[in-house]
Amino acid sequence: MISRAADLPLHYNAVDVLERNLPGRADEPAILSSERCCTFGEVAAEVNRVANALGRLGLRRGDMVAILLLDTVEWVSSFFGVIKAGGVALGMNTLLKSHELRFQLEDARARFLIAHDALLAPLREHLVGSAFLERVIVVGADVNRGELSFGDWIARERTTCEAARTTRDELCTLNYSSGTTGEPKGIPHAHKDLPLCAQLWGANVLGLRPSDRTFAAAKLFFTFGTGGNLVFPWYVGASSVLFSGPARVAANVLATIERFRPTILYNAPTGYAQALAIEDLTTRYDLSSLRLCVSAGEALPAPLWHAWKDRTGLDILDGIGCTENWHIFLSNRPGDIRPGSSGKPFAGYDVKLVDDEGREIREPDVVGNLWVKGETAALSYLRREEASRQTFRREWLVTGDEYTRDSDGYFWHAGRSDDMLKVGGIFVSPVEVESTLIAHEAVLECAVVGEKDDAGLVKPKAFVVLKQGVPSTQELGARLIAHCRERMAEYKRPRWIEFVEELPKTATGKIQRFRLRG
After folding, report:
1. What is the 8-class DSSP label of residue 131?
2. Domains of the chain, with CATH numbers?
3. Model confidence over 87-123: pLDDT tens digits?
4. Closest by alpha carbon to 89, among 106, 72, 111?
5. In this structure, are residues 351 and 320 in contact, taking their beta carbons and an 8 Å threshold?
6. Pairing relationship of beta strands 264-267 and 292-295 according to DSSP bridges
7. pTM for the full model?
8. Is the CA virtual torsion 89, 264, 444, 410 positive or negative?
9. What are the tens digits of pLDDT across the range 425-440?
10. What is the DSSP letter of 447?
11. Residue closest to 47 by CA, chosen among 264, 247, 234
12. d(Cα 459, Cα 456) in Å, to the nearest integer?
């Protein structure tokens, strides 16, 4: 068991997360999906073919290889194939527009791109004249001149391969921030970060075991998906359920659970809310295989936690992580859940709250900036010197989240640093107002931002998505304001309610409040 980077050998390649299963579990299921089901041995053979094929293309240690694929076996074999060959795997967000993908490819200086033909088609014209991209490998039917077919590319390669003799501190992955407040930034991580996160949270906190089967609504290109639904289960010998379709549709998630019988579900708060909006949820779908649920991406409101528990009997472990740290660093845990909170720190990470001058806040129930220290944190953003100085402070990572800590040591999310409202000279957490609104039976989800009144003073405004079939009337808006007035201080309650069909979100499901501000 490892607890720190020094417990890993100096020369370490993170393909070990897969290959540690080969001596005793090569014939055990590694991936279950509608397209293909594979054992650990079968995946390892395909990973070796990819690594050998990249070597034949001239991949150098540290080269960036972009992966623009759906959640299929090819994504997994490409990811670990790049890592095994000594490259850096850039998991690309399949929901982005072509110009956004082009930005990331150029910013990362990717030499190779492995892409699904359906995702590549609208991107091809944006790749003309690329300063860095040399070869494109295509999964699917359509291959243009100069491109390689993935199947043909790896078909003749050997199924054995020596891993590049990388060190534990060499870079092996790159992800881009989801851009809740602006332009995304590249966040690189080292080989050591994958097994460390797997041990510190996946094994020690979540309690993953070989008999588990995980499924994540978050796609593999997110670290929440890569960690929870690939690295963490494989680290302990468990298997993963992959779904290549749109997992933001609750029916798709629930049908996948019923078909493939996972024991662990990862989802965002929005995903749980959407499932609960299905009236016959537990009679239409068989969720009996699940033993535990996990939430991250945004704070999980206590009313939503209780509603899920009442309907399904299942606990949800809420926590907070960030791409800069690769995964979760603050979490509830089985048998120790405080609904509405993000839980407590766990071994491997130090967490503190600081004021705007950087002084540590030790008193309970005082809002402060959340900082975290641990060995899995990135050291900087990719070629973003000023942003790096603001976020990475010596050993500490500035998360950009506002929190309070209660007298029992549980941490409570108060919003993003740039989302906090100051009303009448007093700070108001939008999360607190949102949690109160979500407790109303008519509300599916909501977001609270600041808006100036006629006097130019900032007051809370709520954007509300109603449950299906609930009419958006002026009378209901008044009732929602009254609902808040009864449950919180007068200055906190929203002054305006605006009903909307949906909230603007990142691909990870995080609400983009900055897009709601007037």
Report:
1. S
2. 5-190 (3.40.50.980), 421-515 (3.30.300.30)
3. 999 999 898 888 889 999 999 999 999 999 999 998 9
4. 111
5. no
6. parallel
7. 0.85
8. negative
9. 566 788 889 999 999 9
10. E
11. 234
12. 9
